[in-house]
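Example 9 (inverse folding). The structure is encoded as follows.
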């Protein structure tokens, strides 16, 4: 029992010893683990602190960099805003300057229009004064005519009384019946009245011839006043057709910049009005109108219409047209076999293609005249050199109409100066200058050029006249002359500018021939329409034929 108790006691004591030894071991391990964990924790804390410091430093760098980037972007945006402001400011200044110039131009135009209006008002006032003066003159003439009519009526009564008295005296003296005496008296009075009427008519014609020059100038001036505007519009305007009226806005541009640039580049004026699908190009120079028309055609087809593009297109068109003009001139002189012509004159020949006279193309007219001159000179038996000179002069006779220089001289004299300047022969110079009788002709070619020029212009249908209307007018002229008693034949000549009437010598006297010519001319003037004037010539001839056998 004691052994068991001792054994149990030993086991308990052994267990307790083991427990405490194990406890000390575990405690020691726990303290070592705690120490290690403290060290690990401290290391982790240090690592975390280091990481946090690095992150803070990196964040500060990122923030600094971002602030720097934002500052750079801010400065860039500020600089861009300043540049944009400066650009807009310069554009505004230029626009302001343009508007100022435009306003000055408008003011000048308004002042000019005011001056023109004032001068027109003065002219109207002067014309009104003239009209009032003429009305007073007409009133005085009317009163004088009334007095003269009263005198004539009184003279008529006296004449009737005298005639009655003479009739009675004739009846007593001649012992004729009243009817016979009346017939003889009427025949006598008729012959005397016709003679007096013809005398008065001749006197009136003579006075009319004295005042013809003055009256003709007056009539021409009045005609120019009435018709100048119409024919100027007809010959100085080109119409450019467009597909839509929306294109008009593109052509005008912002504040009218495009149309001003186009007008400045071409020298022609562009009129954009309410006329549908059309734009009017106005200029006295046909070359400028053609340049403007071609430039507009290209710009509308391209669609890009702005001042820079306009200048580029106009420059190209001018260059192309100049080349085309020179090519036309060279082709013309080659076709006519003309050699040694100055390049400037060749260019002028090409410019004729774009000029018309009375609706007749000037180049075609000049070529036609040149060929006619060569034919006429050849038929007259002139030398081959003279024939070539005639053709050359015929081509150059209207060269003064297309010169680029502005001059107060007529086209004939200006053409003569050009021929002299560029080394043409003196004969050609005289032929060009004298084809409208402005200088004296000194060679045989000058009248040939004048005649061929007239032939080309007078040809039926050459100058804006339909052949049917021409033939109709010729026929009406001849029918009008044939309607009078005693007219045998009538011939319209010189393209309807002259009417020759052949009368029967038995029915028409010499005195009545003058009267018949006057009557026919007045009827033509009152009943017909014709260009220029018509010369009426009455021819009376008596032939006596006998045979000796």
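The amino acid assigned to each position is listed next.
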């Amino acid at each position: 029992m004691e052994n068991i108790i001792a054994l149990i006691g030993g086991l308990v004591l052994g267990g307790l010893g083991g427990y405490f030894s194990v406890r000390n071991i575990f405690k020691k391990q726990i303290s070592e683990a705690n120490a290690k964990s403290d060290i690990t924790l401290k290391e982790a804390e240090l690592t975390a602190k280091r990481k946090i410091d690095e992150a803070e430093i990196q964040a500060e760098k990122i923030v600094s960099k971002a602030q720097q980037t934002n500052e750079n972007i801010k400065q860039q945006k500020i600089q861009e805003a300043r540049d944009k402001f400066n650009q807009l400011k310069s554009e505004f200044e230029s626009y302001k300057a343009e508007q100022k110039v435009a306003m000055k131009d408008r003011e000048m135009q308004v002042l000019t229009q005011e001056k023109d209006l004032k001068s027109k008002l003065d002219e109207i006032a002067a014309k009104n004064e003239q009209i009032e003066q003429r009305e007073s003159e007409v009133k005085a003439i009317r009163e004088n005519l009334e007095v003269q009519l009263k005198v004539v009526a009184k003279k008529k009564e006296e004449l009737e009384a005298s005639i009655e008295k003479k009739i009675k005296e004739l009846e007593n003296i001649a012992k004729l019946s009243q009817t016979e005496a009346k017939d003889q008296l009427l025949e006598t009075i008729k012959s005397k009245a016709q003679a007096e009427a013809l005398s008065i008519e001749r006197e009136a014609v003579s006075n009319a011839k004295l005042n013809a020059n003055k009256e003709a100038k007056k009539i021409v001036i009045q005609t120019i006043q009435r018709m100048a505007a119409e024919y100027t519009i007809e010959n100085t305007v080109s119409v450019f057709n467009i597909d839509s009226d929306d294109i008009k806005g593109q052509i005008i541009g912002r504040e009218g910049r495009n149309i001003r640039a186009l007008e400045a580049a071409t020298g022609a004026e562009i009129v954009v009005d309410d006329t549908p699908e059309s734009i009017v190009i106005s200029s006295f120079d046909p070359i400028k109108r053609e340049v403007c028309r071609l430039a507009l055609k290209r710009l509308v087809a391209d669609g890009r219409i702005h001042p820079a593009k306009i200048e580029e297109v106009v420059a190209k068109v001018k260059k192309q047209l100049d080349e085309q003009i020179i090519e036309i001139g060279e082709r013309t002189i080659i076709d006519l076999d003309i050699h040694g012509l100055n390049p400037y004159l060749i260019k002028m020949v090409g410019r004729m293609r774009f000029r018309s006279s009375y609706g007749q193309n000037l180049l075609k007219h000049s070529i036609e005249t040149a060929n006619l001159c060569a034919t006429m000179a050849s038929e007259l038996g002139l030398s081959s050199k003279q024939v070539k000179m005639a053709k050359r002069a015929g081509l150059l006779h209207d060269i003064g109409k297309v010169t680029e220089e502005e001059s107060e001289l007529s086209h004939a004299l200006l053409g003569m100066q050009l021929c002299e300047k560029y080394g043409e022969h003196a004969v050609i110079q005289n032929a060009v200058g004298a084809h409208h009788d402005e200088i004296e002709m000194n060679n045989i070619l000058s009248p040939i050029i004048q005649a061929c020029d007239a032939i080309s212009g007078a040809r039926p249908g050459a100058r804006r006249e339909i052949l049917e209307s021409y033939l109709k007018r010729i026929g009406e002229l001849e029918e009008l002359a044939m309607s009078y008693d005693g007219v045998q034949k009538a011939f319209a000549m010189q393209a309807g500018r002259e009417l020759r009437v052949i009368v029967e010598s038995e029915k028409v006297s010499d005195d009545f021939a003058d009267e018949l010519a006057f009557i026919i001319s007045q009827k033509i003037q009152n009943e017909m329409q014709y260009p220029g004037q018509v010369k009426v010539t009455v021819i009376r001839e008596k032939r006596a034929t006998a045979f000796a056998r």
